[in-house]
Amino acid sequence: MRPLRVLHVTQGYFPGIGGTERLVQRLSEELVRQFGDEVTVFTTNCYSGEAFNRPELPRMPVGLEERAGVRIRRFPVRARLSRLFERPQSFAYRHALAVSQHLRTLYQGPIVPGLGRAIRAQPADVVAATSFPLLHMATALRAAGVTGRPCVFYGGLHPDDDWGFGRPWIYRAMRAASRYVAYTDFEAGVVRSRGVEADRVRVIPLAVDAGTFGVVTREEARRRLGLGGDTPVVGYIGQLGLHKGVDTLLRAMPAVWSAQPEARLLIAGARAAFADHIDRTVAGWPGAWRERTLLRYGFDESEKPGLYAALDVFTYPSGYESFGIAFLEAWASGLPVVGCRRGAIPDVVSAGRDGLLVPFQDETLLARAILALLQNERWRRSLGEAGRRKVLAGLTWERVARRFRKVLSAAR
């Protein structure tokens, strides 16, 4: 099997943090390591998507670099230009104007001058892009088509998000792509229902580096956080945003503390705009609740296994997940998970077998699920062990990268 020249086009890359960023990084590295492929990544100089229309946020240096054999080129984003579309897109969306989809895309960005030209000039057998609904997806498809090369799209569809995904151009682009990789059967069904030919759709789950987790003892992890060994700890580790359901967890905790006052709450993630809301909410709580809350912003990636190891229950009450790598990280750490019965998540979490599912934004049932697990150690252990077995059986990057590689190779 001869090596492939793969060009990945994505909105962010390490040290940018997020599920898509992690996917492209680990997949690119595995393609190099396992197959000797020549992998190049075109990405932005932004740490997160918030920066695509917020010029005041910090940036990485533009230019070329190499990590683990992967060549990375970072392009500057015209955030000030995207910001100009903020009010027009809002007006057009409220009034259901036909131009709304395009104004939303220009506002969301990333606007990257020269990206299409660079894609056309880059030697590659296949162009692969992720994730919708961002502007670079259309740029990648158009540039690949001009040069007669296949374009593969990786999933990330959130059909419940009308502002983001209620854009007809997205589904036209999917129908024009050589292949579409969906992360779940749910996503594949949505894509096919939008007219994408069934034989162009492949379902491949995401993955985790299982060996990275479960290596820090519970005692050591809690010592680092200043917690007692027997203290019940509930946690959220991931991106901090309203759509991730962190606000629901904050509303659920008073009921948890009413029944189990010794419990602690850990919220950890890269600091984003939503962190200000978290800070304000916690600051408004009674002193006893504040003392039971630990906030860890901007932690180093090497700290993540220890954060998971300190937990008894992992909560991820997001309503907009195309998969949810955080579930895999928690399972790799032997933890039970609590997610939401919405979108693709029931395809990932098997309710009652490796976790629990509750309705999105229902803090009452979320609190009940948390308490049910905190009060039953045997059940917690059983669910966590089932999740870890599921990860080791087929959700590691070594295995999953091989499935992506087959799709890339067949698309040529």
Give a description of the structure.
- This protein has helices spanning 19-35, 79-83, 86-94, 100-108, 115-121, 136-146, 162-165, 168-176, 185-193, 218-225, 246-259, 274-283, 287-291, 304-309, 325-332, 345-348, 363-374, 377-394, 397-410; strands at residues 5-10, 38-44, 63-67, 70-75, 126-130, 151-154, 179-182, 201-203, 233-237, 264-269, 293-297, 313-315, 337-340, 355-358.
- Helix 9 links the parallel strand 7 and strand 8.
- Helix 11 packs across helix 17 (363-374).
- An eight-stranded mixed β-sheet has the order 3-4-2-1-5-6-7-8, sandwiched between helices. A six-stranded parallel β-sheet has the order 11-10-9-12-13-14, with helices on both faces.
- The mean pLDDT is 95.
- It contains 19 helices and 14 strands.
Structural class label:
alpha/beta
Number of domains: 2
N-C termini distance: 13 Å
Low-confidence spans: none
**CATH class designation of the largest domain:** Alpha Beta
The helix tally amounts to 19
**Average of the residue pLDDT scores:** 95
- Quote the beta fraction: 15-25%
Oligomer: single chain
